[in-house]
Inverse folding.
């Protein structure tokens, strides 16, 4: 029996999604792409899953596109089909109603870099390298990189990283706002899951709607934002979670949110 290309572990409201092609540094083969999207959608539909942690098996997070498959592409139609399918991972992560944490355990290159950018929170180890490696093989950035990276680091810095394809280390990634936290390799799991556990206990509806509005924020005017806040806050105000949060605040206890 062939080993699964994407592993899924669920515990205490946290789903861990593991890209599982360690020998190829979790490069995005068509089969891995399909399995990853399927597993992410499965997590979205599971009411017991509150937070998703995305990581890679072995020494890498994700090395990007599968060069062996790319070499086999013989026409524009098949090339476009492959890139569109890979891009669906980014759109799936970005549009999930649940928060996604990238636990970057090794190199994040090319599309792998951009999958990390699509996540809501990024933790990595001190030894990790991030590289927009496309230019080295005569390609332009895909998997949403041209949308996500300039919004994080600014247009000029994004051009530099993408034009030169030079790697940056974890500290530089932290300085640029690409990652939220850099920790020692042996502490990555502990720190990531400690944070994930906190998120798993937060109000799911409020977190989901906050993600929704923040993902749109760069494309909204202040007036649009205020209107959308009013629309979505009116939903939150009617939830039992809001009532539980207010009651817990008054009673000086931790709230127990149920997503209703």
């Amino acid at each position: 029996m062939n080993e699964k290309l994407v592993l899924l572990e669920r515990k205490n409201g946290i789903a861990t999604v593991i890209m599982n092609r360690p020998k190829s540094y979790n490069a995005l083969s068509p089969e891995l792409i399909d399995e990853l999207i399927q597993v992410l959608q499965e997590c979205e539909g599971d009411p017991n899953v509150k937070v998703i942690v995305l990581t890679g098996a072995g020494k890498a997070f994700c090395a990007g596109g599968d060069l062996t498959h790319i070499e086999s592409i013989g026409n524009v139609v098949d090339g476009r089909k492959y890139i569109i399918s890979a891009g669906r991972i980014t759109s799936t992560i970005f549009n999930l109603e649940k928060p996604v944490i990238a636990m970057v355990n090794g190199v994040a290159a090319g599309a792998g870099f951009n999958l990390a950018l699509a996540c809501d929170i990024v933790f990595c180890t001190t030894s990790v390298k991030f590289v927009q490696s496309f230019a080295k093989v005569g390609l332009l950035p895909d998997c949403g990189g041209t949308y996500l990276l300039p919004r994080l680091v600014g247009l000029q810095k994004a051009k530099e990283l993408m034009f030169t394809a030079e790697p940056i280390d974890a500290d530089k990634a932290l300085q640029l706002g690409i990652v939220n936290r850099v920790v020692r390799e042996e502490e990555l799991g502990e720190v990531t899951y400690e944070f994930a556990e906190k998120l798993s206990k937060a109000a799911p509806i409020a977190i989901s709607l906050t993600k929704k509005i923040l993902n749109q924020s760069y494309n909204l005017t202040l007036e649009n934002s205020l209107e959308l806040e009013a629309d979505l806050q009116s939903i939150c105000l009617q939830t039992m979670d809001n009532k539980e949060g207010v009651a817990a605040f008054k009673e000086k206890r931790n709230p127990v949110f149920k997503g209703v």
